[in-house]
Amino acid sequence: MSSRTVIRGGLVITAADEIHADVLIEDGRIAALAASGTPAAEAFTAERTIDATGKYVIPGGVDGHTHMEMPFGGTYASDTFETGTRAAAWGGTTTIVDFAIQAKGGTLREGLDAWHAKAEGNCAVDYGFHMIVSDVTEETLKEMDLLVEEGVTSFKQFMAYPGVFYSDDGQILRAMQRAAGNGGLIMMHAENGIAIDVLVEQALARGETDPRHHGEVRKALLEAEATHRAIRLAQVAGAPLYVVHVSAREAVAELTRARDEGLPVFGETCPQYLFLSTDNLAEPDFEGAKYVCSTPLRPRGHQAALWRGLRTDDLQVVSTDHCPFCFSGQKELGRGDFSKIPNGLPGVENRMDLLHQAVVDGHLSRRRWIEIACAAPARMFGLYPKKGTLAPGADADVVVYDPHAEQVISARTHHMNVDYSAYEGRRVTGRVETVLSRGEPVITGREYTGRPGHGVYTPRSTCQYLD
Questions:
Q1: What does DSSP assign to residue 125?
Q2: Quick check: 244 and 321 in contact, CB under 8 A?
Q3: Is 1's pLDDT higher than 70?
Q4: Inter-CA distances, 222 with 191, 250, 263, Å
Q5: Coil, helix or strand for 248?
Q6: What are phi and psi for residue 84, nearest 5 degrees?
Q7: Rounded distance, CA 241 to CA 359, Å?
Q8: Cα–Cα dist 36/42, whole Å
Q9: Taking all residues of the chain, what is their mean pLDDT, rounded to a whole number?
Q10: Across residues 335-348, what is the average pLDDT?
Q11: What is the Cα–Cα distance from 62 to 319, expressed in whole angstroms?
């Protein structure tokens, strides 16, 4: 049975174009677009019509950095693949790329299989996986080739978290050399974890235990140093590099310099670094624990460099690093010792709205909003043009977005499985109204009409900025 939907009268916005057009969807894909009111558009017929007059019609968001059900510090991220992907849909995100984790001493395959088991049959929207490589061995390096062949084309390494995920420079170089040969993309958490651990130990010895000290010991210079080192190791290996959750202006400067040299180096930032700061980490009565993540929030003065990097394309992607832990019972594990606060913030539901607010505030153009939230992550991780755009043949992942609706972000109304909002009380203009995933309504006029298991695993090709 063929099923057809037409979305009429909206302003269709992609990374490349803005046009008042009607969108015809057939069997889960975009079949055609035609300028509204033209004979071609009038000829569209369908069983379901969605009126988008006065609204934007945009591609579903692609969040290239989430951590559902992630183990960390003796606990687990509070969103499951079911609750997390439902919240993503509420926020206009229709594809996530999550991180499967290789256990120390284990294989990449075991880690990937474990994450497939968590996600399969539970997701409201489509999903893919990156692979966290925490144990570089000859066997691991061979496995990287096999994973690229089956659509897991990016591998994350950590210069932070000694004893947990940390890789030394030699292990990083070996993985980068392998990626240079197999087409994979190394994603780097760039912080000097060895030096940070010294500063953590010294701060605790001085009795500096509050959440704000988390930001003070994870110094911007140690993010910049690690970013520089990762860039040079990638250059030696002849490999591309993607630096995750860039938060400091000094790190942006390292990426800008590398790109000015013509190196295939890319960077992402996250809404928390654009909208929050060390002021939040310093909130009294342990409230600052809600904002503990790594890289940490920086003083407000860093935000201008991040916005500029997004405008100049020295930063290409905004993802969330969604890794929620409840304040009660999880963040509280670090009372009296900031180093025991689970690192991570909830955000998968808020990204599209916060970035639209950036359009309203004049930081970004509408097309750049779609570029950094939809098209660029799809290209970066080998999903374009299936995802990230509205064009014939693309998956019908479509959001009808009301640019005039006002809302107040709050834990009372969000759909993430976490007991606080990092953006509590923030007023934003713009709101998701209807969301289609492969043509199926997941959010219909502000009601959830999706289901676990609609979302399917999506293998990826290699980074499309390197073709």
A1: S
A2: yes
A3: no
A4: 6, 9, 22
A5: coil
A6: -70, -40
A7: 28
A8: 8
A9: 97
A10: 97
A11: 8
Kindly state the average pLDDT of the residues 110-116: 98
Contact 339, 309 (CB under 8 A): no
Asked whether the beta carbons of 62 and 397 are under 8 A apart, the reply is no
Read off the pLDDT band of 73 (50, 70, 90).
confident
Cα–Cα distances in angstroms (integers) from residue 13 to residues 44, 268, 367, 401, in the given order:
20, 22, 7, 10
> Which residues, including other chains, have CB under 8 Å from residue 8's CB and lie 6 or more apart?
22, 36, 41, 49, 50, 51, 52, 53
Q: How many CB atoms lie within 10 A of CB 107?
A: 15
Which pLDDT tens digit goes with each residue over 264-280?
999 999 999 999 999 99
φ, ψ for residue 424 (rounded to 5)? -50, 125
φ, ψ dihedrals at 345, nearest 5°:
-130, 150
With bands split at pLDDT 50, 70 and 90, how would you rate the model's confidence at 59? Answer: very high
For residues 396 and 73, which has the higher predicted lDDT (pLDDT)? 396
Q: Label residue 336 left, alpha or beta by phi (over 0 means left) and psi (-120 to 50 means alpha).
A: left
Residue 291 CA from chain centroid, whole number: 17
Q: What is the pLDDT of residues 151-204, one digit of tens each?
A: 999 999 999 999 999 999 999 999 999 999 999 999 999 999 999 999 999 999
How far apart CA 79 and CA 119 sit, in angstroms, is: 12
- Rounded CA-CA distance 438/454 in Å is 9
Q: Which amino acid is at 340?
A: K
